[in-house]
Amino acid sequence: MDIEQYMQNVGKHAREASRRIARADSNAKNNALRAIAAAIRRDTDDLLAANREDLAAARAAGLEPAMLDRLTLSAKGVAAMAEGVDQVAALADPVGEISDLKFRPSGIQVGRMRVPLGVIGIIYEARPNVTADAAALCLKSGNASILRGGSEAIRSNRAIAALVQEGLATAGLPANAVQVIETTDRAAVGHLITLREYVDVIVPRGGKGLIARLLAESRVPMIQHLDGNCHVYLDDDADPEKALQIVENSKTQRYGTCNTAESLLLARSVVAQVLPAIAAMLTQKGVEIRGCHETLALLPHARAATEEDYAAEFLAPIISVKVVSGLDEAIEHINHYGSHHTDAIVSENYTSVMRFLREVDSASVMVNASTRFADGFEYGLGAEIGISTDKIHARGPVGLEGLTSQKWIVLGNGEVRA
Amino acid sequence: MDIEQYMQNVGKHAREASRRIARADSNAKNNALRAIAAAIRRDTDDLLAANREDLAAARAAGLEPAMLDRLTLSAKGVAAMAEGVDQVAALADPVGEISDLKFRPSGIQVGRMRVPLGVIGIIYEARPNVTADAAALCLKSGNASILRGGSEAIRSNRAIAALVQEGLATAGLPANAVQVIETTDRAAVGHLITLREYVDVIVPRGGKGLIARLLAESRVPMIQHLDGNCHVYLDDDADPEKALQIVENSKTQRYGTCNTAESLLLARSVVAQVLPAIAAMLTQKGVEIRGCHETLALLPHARAATEEDYAAEFLAPIISVKVVSGLDEAIEHINHYGSHHTDAIVSENYTSVMRFLREVDSASVMVNASTRFADGFEYGLGAEIGISTDKIHARGPVGLEGLTSQKWIVLGNGEVRA
After folding, report:
1. Are A416 and B117 in contact (CB < 8 Å)?
2. Between chains, do B417 and A362 touch, taking CB under 8 Å as contact?
3. How far apart are alpha carbons A245 and A371 in whole angstroms?
4. Predicted confidence band of residue B223 (pLDDT cuts 50, 70, 90)
5. Residues on chain A touching B117 (C-beta within 8 angstroms)
6. What are A287-318's pLDDT values in tens digits?
7. How far apart are CA A207 and CA A202, in angstroms?
8. CA atoms in the 13 A half-sphere facing the CB of A385
9. Highest mean pLDDT: which of B123-132, B218-227, B362-371?
10. Domain named Aldehyde dehydrogenase: which ranges (chains A, B) (predicted)?
11. pLDDT band at A392; cut points 50, 70, 90
12. Chain B from 341 to 380: CB within 8 A of any A CB
C-alpha cells in the first residue's frame, strides 16, 4: 500500500464530499444521524465482537491496563455511543444561521452566516467511542471528516465506520463524508497533518505527547488541547465554606480529567482560617499535598513542592499548594505556571473578581465555582469535540459552533460603491 | 548582528509587553493613540525627510514605479496617517466585552469575554502608512505587535516607530508593545514566522508571492489573504438595470483592488437582453473582454477566454465572461475557479438568492450589490487590518474583533459539579 497515495485519495474524497455535506439540509443530516444510532444499536453484538478482537490483540501486545480500559467497549458503552449520536441529531443545526444583519449608510445590509469549515481531521487514541462521537459532530456541523484513531482500535473503528457510512447512505448523503483511515501505519498521520489542500483543520484528541508531535509537524491549522494545570485561588475575601466545597470538588471529584485542579493558591490572610479544614479534607480523601514553606509550617507532614510541581498536570491525587501575598501574585503565578486551561477564584470582593476575570489568561476563568464545570455539556454546547487551549479560532470547550466559521453576507438592492 | 538572537529578543520583549498592554484600560490605550497621532502631525517634516531618503535609495536601486508610488509619503498622506490613528482611538474597545451570559441548570452563569490574542506579527510591503495603521489596530485591541515592513521603507518605518513609542511612553504603556524590526535582513522574516513561543498570529499584508512563501514556512497561525478573483453572476431573474450598474461598479470603479470583479457569469436566458449594454459600457471604459464561445457569438470582437483567464486575478481592465446554464453551474464555477473572496448574484428570485448565499463558499457573498463593498469600513468594522480568505478564526474583512478571541467566564455562587 502506497500510504501517501492512499492519503491523497482520502483527502480528495473528503473534499468532494465536504461540498455536498456542507449544503445538506438539517433533515438529511439528522436522518443520517438517527440511522447511524439505530444501526449501532442493531449491531451491538458485532461491535462487541470486533472490540473483543482488538482487546485480544492489545493484550497479546502487552498494552497497559489504562489503555486497555479506554479501548474496551461494553454493551452499556455501545448504548451510550448510540445515545450520543441521537443527542447530536437533536441539537440545533449551526449551519446557515444568520446573525447581526445591520443596515449600513450605503444602503446595504451586512451580516454573517455560519458555515462549515470543510474537512476536519480528527486524530485520537484507541477509544472507539470517539469514532462515533467525532463523526456525529462533524456531520451535524456540515463538515466532512477523516478519522484516525489509535491503531489498537482498528477493528472496532472499522465496524463503527461501516455503520456510519450505512447511515449516510440511508439519508442520501455521500459515504465519504466520514472516512476512517484504514491503515494502522503511523505514516498516515504524517500525511494527514500536511494535506493542506484537502484538510482545513486538525483536531487532536489525546495526550500531551501526541499533541506536541503534531504541533511540530502539522501544516494544517489545529484546534489543539495541551495540558490542564488548573488552579483554585482563595482570595483575601474568600468565603471559607465555598472555598472548602470548591477545592474539594475541583480536586477530588475526578483525578484524571483535564479540568481537575492541580494547584491551590491561598492569600496569606486566609491561610490560618481555611487551610486546616481543606488539608484535613484532602488528607482524608488520600490526596497528597506538596506545599510551599508557609504551607509546611501549618502542615508539617506535607511534602515540599518543587518548581516542577507547580507546573505539573498530575492527573492523580496530588495537589500543589502555595501561599501568595494576594491577588497580584496569584494572577502572576497562574499566568506563569498554568496551562491557560481553567482557573478559579473564590472571593466575595467585586474588584478582585473583576480583575481575576480580566487578567487571568485562560480559556475558562471562574468565580466561586468548581473548575470541573469547564466542559461543553456544562456550558450548554450540547456536545464537545474537545477543549482548546489555543487562542486562535476556538478557545475552551469546542462544540458544533467551533467546527464552523462565519462568512459575511451582504443584502443589497442595486447599491454600488461611491 | 546575530539575526536569530535579535529576533528572539524582539519576541521575548513583545511577549512581556503583551501582558501589560492586554490589561491596559481603554483610556491609557486611547491616550497613547492620540499622542501618536499628535506626534505624527508635529513631526511631518521629519517623516517626509526620512521618506525622501528611502525614495532616493529605492530609485538608485531601480525600484519599479508602482512600488515607488506605494513607498511615497506626501504631507497629505502623513495627515491621513495621523487621522487614521485618531479614528482607531475613537472606536469602541473590544477588550473585556462580555457577551452571552446565561444561567445553566447547575446554577452557574456562563458567558464569554473578549480578550487580546497576545503578540501579532505583521509582515507587509514597503508602505509606510501600514506601519502606523497596524500599530494602532494592534494597540487598541490590546495586543503587542512586531512590524516588519518592506526593507525599502526602513527609514520611514523607523521614524514612525519612534513616534509610536513616544506616544506609548506618554500614556505610561510599555514601548515594546509596538516594535519595528530594525534590520532589513530577510532572514528576520524567517525567524518571525517560526517564533511560536512568542508570536500568536501572523498577519501578512502583501502580494500573493509573499503569502505563498509565508504559508510554506510559517509555524505560527496566519490570518492570510490570498488573491481576489471575484465574480458577478447575473441570474435568470436579474434586474437588467441593477445588473448593469453592479457590473460597472464591481469591475470599473477601481481595477487594482482585491474586491474588484474579475469575472462575469450570465445565465443563458438573460444574455441576449443584458450583455450588449454591459459590453458597450465595458468597451467604452476600455475594459478588455475575454469570453466563452457563446459570449463571442454576441461579441465577435472579444477575445476567447482560456482556463487561466477564469482563474485569474487580473488587477487590470480585463474581465472574463462566461455564459452558464443557470444557478447550479454558476455556483459550481465560482467555487471551482474563484478564490473564496467575494462573489455577488444579481437576481430578484428568492430561492436563487438563498441558495447562492448558502452555497457559494466565499468570505463575502452578496446579493444585488457591488463586490467593491467587501471592505472593513463599508461593513462597519471601523478599521481593517486585512481581508482573510481563510476560514479558521477570521474570514473576510478583519477589524479589531479579528485581533481578539473570546475566553469563557463562569460566575458562580459556590456551585460544584454533581
Report:
1. no
2. no
3. 12
4. confident
5. 391-392
6. 999 999 999 999 999 999 999 999 999 999 99
7. 15
8. 33
9. B362-371
10. 11-283, 311-374
11. confident
12. 344, 357-359, 361-370, 372-374, 378-380
Residue B205 Cα distances to B132, B142, B172, angstroms: 14, 20, 30
* pLDDT band per the 50, 70, 90 thresholds, residue A106: very high
Q: Calculate the average pLDDT of chain B.
A: 95
Spatial separation of the C-alpha atoms in residues A100 and A113, rounded to whole Å? 9
* Residues in contact with A139: Cβ distance below 8 Å, sequence separation at least 6, in sequence order: A21, A29, A32, A33, A88, A145, A168, A173, A177, A178
**Given pLDDT bands bounded at 50, 70 and 90, which one contains residue B391?**
confident
**In Å, how far are A94, B331, B406 from B355, measured between CA atoms?**
17, 9, 31
Which residues are paired to A365 by β-bridges? A343, B409
How far is residue B389 from each of residues A313, B254, B374, B375, measured CA to CA in Å? 38, 20, 12, 13
Contact A395 B372 (CB under 8 A): no
Gyration radius (Cα) of chain A, Å? 24
The cell for A224 is 489543539
Distance from CA of A378 to the nearest CA of B (A): 7
Residues near B329 by beta carbon (within 8 Å), at least 6 away in sequence: none
| Residue of chain B minimizing CA distance to A115 | B358
Distance (Å) from the C-alpha of residue A197 to the closest C-alpha of chain B?
A: 12
Enumerate domains of chain B plus CATH numbers.
Answer: 3-223+394-411 (3.40.605.10), 230-378 (3.40.309.10)
β-bridge pairing A396-398 and A386-388:
antiparallel
Question: Nine-digit cell at A223?
Answer: 484546534
- Return the C-alpha torsion angle B204, B206, B209, B211, nearest 10: 20
Give the SS3 label for residue A173: coil
**Alpha-carbon distances of A389 from A26, A370, A379, A396, B92, rounded to whole Å:** 30, 18, 16, 6, 27
Range 147-206 of A in CB contact (< 8 A) with B = 196, 200-201
Q: Between these two residues, A226 and A243, which has the higher pLDDT value?
A: A243
Q: Which amino acid is at A238?
A: A
Beta pairing, strands B119-124 & B144-148: parallel
Three cell numbers, residue B303: 477575445
Q: What are phi and psi of B133, to 5 degrees?
A: -60, -50
The partner residues of A19 in beta bridges, in order of sequence, read none
The residue with greater pLDDT, B182 or A410, is A410
Are B339 and B229 in contact by the 8 Å Cβ rule? The answer is yes
Substitution target in B341, B405, B411, B413 with the highest count of A β-carbons within 10 Å is B405
CA dihedral A347, A352, A355, A358 (to 10 degrees): 10
| Phi and psi torsions of B154, nearest 5° | -60, -40
Q: What ipTM, to 2 d.p.?
A: 0.92
Q: How confident is the model at residue B242 (pLDDT cuts 50, 70, 90)?
A: very high
A221 and B411: CB-CB below 8 Å?
Answer: no
Size of interface A-B (CB pairs under 8 A): 219
Of B96, B108, B367, the CB nearest to A369: B108
At position A19, the amino acid (one-letter code) is R
